[in-house]
């Protein structure tokens, strides 16, 4: 195999995301598997260029269009990917010399059979590098929507949508925070170790580790690009999971010996967390509509030493009469727009639309309607999403309690005191990247009336 350098691989991935609608996280992993010679530093460099370029793409295109006579919508797709990646390095990667970004972009253009345009690539990038401190932006006071869209690289529909619900200063902080890559968070597996021992083991594996922010079982790690290769991971000592997602398990509050239903369970983070909280005693039914995703749950449960999870292939919008009123607790981690995890998957903001939100609300309400029937009288239903969207979150909950035999149940007893707020006393909480330094997450706890 002819070796490709990291910048060239990054350009390939950027092209796949923009031209072939590939998902950034999947495309990155596929290329890392394909190019086995890549070092950890190479992988980190590629990830930074890819995610950063996609994260700031509207901002980057705005700058390119100020310095190029040929506008981005008229460029060859590959040339545009090369330029975007080069501008990202010049603008946002302070340790990369502008000359290196320009020279490598020219080499990639020539190597990919576009030598005739290498002078154009060189001219545009060097012009931007020379004038980096003289770029003009929309006026925040006169054109606040355009300013937020360009400065923080968000589609106009999303900025307008958030501004309907939140003040401009909050939306600006939200956009900014969602552009910052998060630390990796893991959940200590209490069935096999404790947090102190795990921290010591990870340190010996040359992993930087620190305490989580919300929960005792949470740890932040860094300095690793291949978690699945760690001995501690393969021994089932931990699971990758954001703290906002861990809060779902605590708010559900499953008890040993109970019957728990996770109706949209893949990839299994919440189901396996419940298994640990239940001390591996009871029954957890974990469902999904994709067989290959059920295998992810099975593999995680086996690795973590949890044997109370039964996986089942089933569509959550279709009623299973055999399980009606059988479950102590039901968890609906609903399919959603994912606007709370843009930090991790920056391509989400370019792949969603306002129509997607409306379509998702229909699905979410159908799942709520069906799966609420599995809860025993007096039992608990927890509804969660990884999005920041009132339509998908609070508006759904208001609709649900108006039409079904459920009341909101306070979540304060199940979450850290510093997360207590007016809404948590009522029975729900919305986490924001700019407020909580976590994924954007919504969690509501509901109790079925007797």
UniProtKB/TrEMBL annotation:
PROSITE patterns: SAM_MT_RSMB_NOP. It catalyses: cytidine(967) in 16S rRNA + S-adenosyl-L-methionine = 5-methylcytidine(967) in 16S rRNA + S-adenosyl-L-homocysteine + H(+). One of its GO terms (molecular function) is methyltransferase activity. S-adenosyl-L-methionine binds at residues 264-270, 288, 315, 333. One of its GO terms (biological process) is methylation. Pfam families: Methyltr_RsmB-F (PF01189), NusB (PF01029), RsmF-B_ferredox (PF22458). Keywords: Cytoplasm, Methyltransferase, RNA-binding, rRNA processing, S-adenosyl-L-methionine, Transferase. The active site is at 386 (nucleophile). Residues 174-449 form the SAM-dependent MTase RsmB/NOP-type domain. Gene3D superfamilies: NusB-like, Sun protein, domain 3, Vaccinia Virus protein VP39. It is an enzyme of class 2 (transferase). It comes from the Bacteria. Signal peptide: none annotated. It is found in: Cytoplasm. Its EC number is 2.1.1.176. Its main location: cytoplasm. Belongs to the class I-like SAM-binding methyltransferase superfamily. RsmB/NOP family. Specifically methylates the cytosine at position 967 (m5C967) of 16S rRNA. This is 16S rRNA (cytosine(967)-C(5))-methyltransferase. The gene is rsmB.
């Amino acid at each position: 195999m002819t070796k490709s350098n990291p910048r060239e691989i990054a350009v390939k991935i950027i092209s796949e995301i923009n031209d072939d609608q590939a998902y950034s996280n999947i495309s990155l992993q596929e290329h890392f598997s394909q190019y086995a010679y890549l070092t950890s530093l190479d992988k980190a460099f590629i990830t930074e260029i890819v995610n950063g370029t996609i994260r700031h793409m509207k901002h980057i295109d705005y700058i390119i269009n100020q310095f190029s006579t040929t506008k981005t919508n008229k460029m060859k797709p590959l040339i545009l990917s090369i330029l975007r990646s080069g501008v990202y390095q010049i603008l946002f990667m302070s340790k990369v010399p502008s000359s290196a970004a320009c020279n490598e972009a020219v080499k990639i253009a020539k190597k990919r059979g576009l030598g005739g345009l290498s002078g154009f690539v060189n001219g545009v990038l060097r012009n931007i590098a020379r004038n980096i401190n003289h770029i003009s932006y929309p006026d925040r006071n006169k054109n606040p929507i355009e300013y937020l869209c360009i400065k923080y690289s968000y589609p106009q529909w999303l900025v307008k949508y958030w501004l309907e619900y939140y003040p401009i200063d909050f939306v600006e902080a939200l956009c900014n925070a969602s552009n910052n890559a998060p630390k990796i968070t893991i959940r200590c597996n209490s069935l096999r170790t404790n947090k102190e021992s795990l921290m010591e083991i990870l340190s010996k594996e040359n992993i930087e580790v620190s305490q989580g922010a919300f929960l005792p079982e949470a740890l932040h790690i860094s300095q690793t690009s291949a978690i699945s290769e760690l001995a501690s991971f393969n021994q089932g000592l931990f699971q990758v999971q954001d703290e906002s997602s861990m809060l779902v398990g605590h708010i559900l509050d499953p008890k040993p010996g109970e019957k728990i239903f996770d109706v949209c369970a893949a990839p299994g983070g919440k189901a396996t967390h419940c298994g640990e909280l239940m001390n591996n005693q009871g029954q957890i039914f974990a469902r999904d509509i994709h067989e290959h995703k059920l295998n992810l749950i099975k593999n995680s449960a086996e690795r973590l030493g949890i044997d109370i999870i039964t996986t089942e292939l089933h569509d959550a919008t279709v009623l299973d009469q055999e399980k009606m009123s059988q479950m102590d607790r039901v968890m609906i981690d609903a399919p959603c727009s994912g606007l709370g995890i843009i930090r991790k998957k920056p391509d989400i903001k370019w792949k969603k639309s306002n129509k997607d939100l409306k379509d998702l609300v229909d699905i979410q309400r159908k799942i709520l309607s069906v799966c609420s029937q599995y809860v025993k009288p007096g039992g608990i239903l927890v509804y969660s999403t990884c999005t920041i969207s009132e339509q998908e979150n609070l508006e759904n909950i208001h609709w649900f309690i108006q039409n079904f035999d459920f009341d909101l149940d306070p979540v304060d007893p199940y979450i850290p005191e510093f997360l207590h707020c007016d809404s948590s006393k009522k029975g729900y909480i919305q986490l924001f990247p700019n407020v909580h330094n976590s994924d954007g997450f919504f969690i509501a706890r509901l109790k079925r009336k007797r």
